[in-house]
Amino acid sequence: MATKDELWTGNGKSAKENRADWKAANIQAGRINVEQDATLNVNRSITGDGIVLTGGAASFQADGSFGTTTKVGDKGTVSVGINAKLNINLKDANSASRANETSRSLDNANSGIRAYNNGHLESGDSAEITINAGHGRAVNFGEPFGGTTEVQKAAVSIENVGYGDQFKGDSNIPVWYNSRNITSNSATSTDSNNSVVLADSTKMNITGRDGLVLGNRATFVTGNHSVVHIDNQGNGAGLLLDNFSKVEVSPHSQLIMTSYGKNSSGGYWGGNYIGLGDNGQFRVEHDATFKYTLTGRNGGNNTPYDDNMNILSRSSNARPEVYVGNNATFDGESDYKDYYGEIFAFP
Fold this sequence. Notes:
The chain is mainly β. It contains two helices and 26 strands.
């Protein structure tokens, strides 16, 4: 399985774990359909993923700028139909303590739904999606496997981590998250298209260390009148999309995100709580609510430059944007006290 191959190569680093400890997913398939009014329960008490998606593909269309990609075929997809329910509970789903963040643990790499590239999660009207990821990640499309180093980084000081030092003191970041500290162009990730697109009145509830980490050329749409809750514990990210990505908090919908204890992970370049990359677009449409609250950051002594939310766009012809529509709410709060970490930033 690709999971074991990636574990063993460890993103180019020497693996420290026994690959036999990584177990096959409950379901591995090109496409999973949960039909109208049906329920799919995926429960797991051992290390590994709930669902692994395969076979997804994308095509690239040049447009004189960065170009766009579109999904090809129906593979790499979980589809939750009208009034249908998808419930995923990974190992330690209801007891996600932070005990293993300072040591290597494959449980931190567990993912509710994983695709190595070109992954898609979609819903029909009034669907319900619940993912309790424990120490792991709810949805991981196109992001590194992780698992070959600890989540919590070693203590560093602001004096040792300059603004231009991409990974100094942060060797864990490229293992767990893509770096967004790159200048992209139309040739970047032309084979990638990842998405979580919810239909009207969907309910999504996510708990775990990481929420949605969706890679390059990704789209996240909440759907009109939908309610999405993402609750993260410890040193995890809530919502990360990389270059040429878009988030839409749809009209009359709610995207509510909370984090407790993110005090020693991430940076402005990757692994922060909410982030987009080159030419990122974040839209809160009319009458919608977007709110994120981070507590327990403990002053950020180990995490200089770890913006709570940012769009890191370096290309000179990019047009990154945050849009807040009529009667909409954009509300960010954090007890992070590091001088270089922002509630929201365009670094």
